[in-house]
Amino acid sequence: MQERLEQIKKQLHSEQFKLTPQREATLRVLLENEESHLSAEEIFMLVKQKSPDIGLATVYRTLDLLCDLKIIEKLNFGDGVARYEFRTDDHPHHHHHLICLKCGSLSEIEDMLDDLEERVERDHKFKIVDHRVSFLGYCENCQSEAE
């Protein structure tokens, strides 16, 4: 985690921003909960445990800055709550999401659309820079509860 934090610190500095204690606390929460797709409010509650003096507006500003710098991505899964996850430079759309309509659970699956993406680019002469796919349905637990 420290290595990724240093990497992000360098990126911030290259864009003329500092890694303030508030930004570091927010980044640490994001790194510690990388698989969780946390909302801003969830991030705030976890940051508040580490830095009791931090305000919700500071967390929002930090998240906005990290999104602007393409360090994290703001996701909308159709439930009215923005969630956040880290971006990767090598392949920005490296996975897709499975969203349970009953319990709201989120799971990730690997990107299986590379061939389709190449075909769309070729057939439609359209340069794709990103795509997002969310599959909506019912997780295994919710399916078995309905039976």
UniProtKB/TrEMBL annotation:
<feature type="binding site">
    <location>
        <position position="94"/>
    </location>
    <ligand>
        <name>Fe cation</name>
    </ligand>
</feature>
<keyword id="KW-0862">Zinc</keyword>
<dbReference type="InterPro" id="IPR036390">
    <property type="entry name" value="WH_DNA-bd_sf"/>
</dbReference>
<dbReference type="GO" id="GO:1900376">
    <property type="term" value="P:regulation of secondary metabolite biosynthetic process"/>
</dbReference>
<dbReference type="GO" id="GO:0000976">
    <property type="term" value="F:transcription cis-regulatory region binding"/>
</dbReference>
<dbReference type="GO" id="GO:0003700">
    <property type="term" value="F:DNA-binding transcription factor activity"/>
</dbReference>
<dbReference type="GO" id="GO:0008270">
    <property type="term" value="F:zinc ion binding"/>
</dbReference>
<dbReference type="GO" id="GO:0045892">
    <property type="term" value="P:negative regulation of DNA-templated transcription"/>
</dbReference>
<feature type="binding site">
    <location>
        <position position="139"/>
    </location>
    <ligand>
        <name>Zn(2+)</name>
    </ligand>
</feature>
<dbReference type="InterPro" id="IPR043135">
    <property type="entry name" value="Fur_C"/>
</dbReference>
<keyword id="KW-0805">Transcription regulation</keyword>
<dbReference type="InterPro" id="IPR002481">
    <property type="entry name" value="FUR"/>
</dbReference>
<keyword id="KW-0479">Metal-binding</keyword>
<feature type="binding site">
    <location>
        <position position="131"/>
    </location>
    <ligand>
        <name>Fe cation</name>
    </ligand>
</feature>
<protein>
    <submittedName>
        <fullName>Transcriptional repressor</fullName>
    </submittedName>
</protein>
<keyword id="KW-0804">Transcription</keyword>
<feature type="binding site">
    <location>
        <position position="142"/>
    </location>
    <ligand>
        <name>Zn(2+)</name>
    </ligand>
</feature>
<keyword id="KW-0678">Repressor</keyword>
<keyword id="KW-0408">Iron</keyword>
<keyword id="KW-0238">DNA-binding</keyword>
<feature type="binding site">
    <location>
        <position position="100"/>
    </location>
    <ligand>
        <name>Zn(2+)</name>
    </ligand>
</feature>
<dbReference type="InterPro" id="IPR036388">
    <property type="entry name" value="WH-like_DNA-bd_sf"/>
</dbReference>
<feature type="binding site">
    <location>
        <position position="103"/>
    </location>
    <ligand>
        <name>Zn(2+)</name>
    </ligand>
</feature>
<dbReference type="Pfam" id="PF01475">
    <property type="entry name" value="FUR"/>
</dbReference>
<comment type="similarity">
    <text>Belongs to the Fur family.</text>
</comment>
